[in-house]
């Protein structure tokens, strides 16, 4: 069995087998969030084809995910960069050749780091735009005909034992709703992702493809939030502006996020199951924010100023926020 227990990646509310006979194609599928999304779908009956840049990491993730259900087919293909359309298209075609179809797509590959505009080279900005925005476009181009075919083949999703097909999800973020310091690159890139999905919803909805966005907030235990925390962003301060202790949330987590806690990968996996299930048969062009309400008050997330050493805007004016060291790549 996989090292992960089902309750870690899925709520106990979904019916077994609701994705039986369906195949999900996932970019960035070995990542913390996307692997949980994939795991949940496989647990509920789907087969999966995950791609990533790192060969070992992607293959190992596929082997582990396959353990959640006896008979699951999960392929993990490395050396596929969403910035390279040709390799992505080959991967999509291989998924169809080996697993039979592409019924669902998760565009999850993303790149991010923390930097002021002053600390960003044009190449650095472009790298994130290329991975997130162009990568999502490339993923759409490489899979949309397969999704259209799947939507046409599974046109009665409410029939007994007939899971839907032709569903697309992009994993985005909430940075661009308000703007967030040190995230100009990711904010711009994710705004582009949201916009692209709107266009897919409009242009392919008439063919039966439902395209939506999931926007996670701060998710505990992920590489992205580890980096934010290292830079002093993710540590939710337990003191108010006057240094007074804020009482802990009734849910035992962050007192400054409206829901009282950080997100979990399971929150995102559950949202994914919903959007791919028959229950979301008429949900198209939607942005499903799963962040406990955090974006509505930047005081709860990514608000520079929570770390006393990084009061906004002093750290910008002093130059302390520039020149973050590039961390060793995990790719
Ligand atoms: C400033 C940086 C930087 C940093 C990289 N660069 N890190 N600039 N601050 N911390 C610059 C480099 O100096 C270079 O520009 C340019 O970016 C490209 O870097 P390379 O490493 O050569 O490119 P590449 O291999 O394509 O790397 C892409 C990447 C990298 C995005 C820069 O971080 C990456 O591969 N990340 C993938 C994993 C990842 O980020 N996952 C997190 C997703 S989570 P110059 O001009 O110097 O050559 C997420 C949620 C939010 O998105 C989390 C918030 C942190």
Automatic annotation (TrEMBL):
<dbReference type="InterPro" id="IPR036291">
    <property type="entry name" value="NAD(P)-bd_dom_sf"/>
</dbReference>
<keyword id="KW-0560">Oxidoreductase</keyword>
<protein>
    <recommendedName>
        <fullName>2,4-dienoyl-CoA reductase [(3E)-enoyl-CoA-producing]</fullName>
        <ecNumber>1.3.1.124</ecNumber>
    </recommendedName>
</protein>
<keyword id="KW-0521">NADP</keyword>
<dbReference type="GO" id="GO:0008670">
    <property type="term" value="F:2,4-dienoyl-CoA reductase (NADPH) activity"/>
</dbReference>
<dbReference type="Pfam" id="PF13561">
    <property type="entry name" value="adh_short_C2"/>
</dbReference>
<dbReference type="InterPro" id="IPR002347">
    <property type="entry name" value="SDR_fam"/>
</dbReference>
<dbReference type="InterPro" id="IPR045017">
    <property type="entry name" value="DECR2-like"/>
</dbReference>
<feature type="region of interest" description="Disordered">
    <location>
        <begin position="236"/>
        <end position="258"/>
    </location>
</feature>
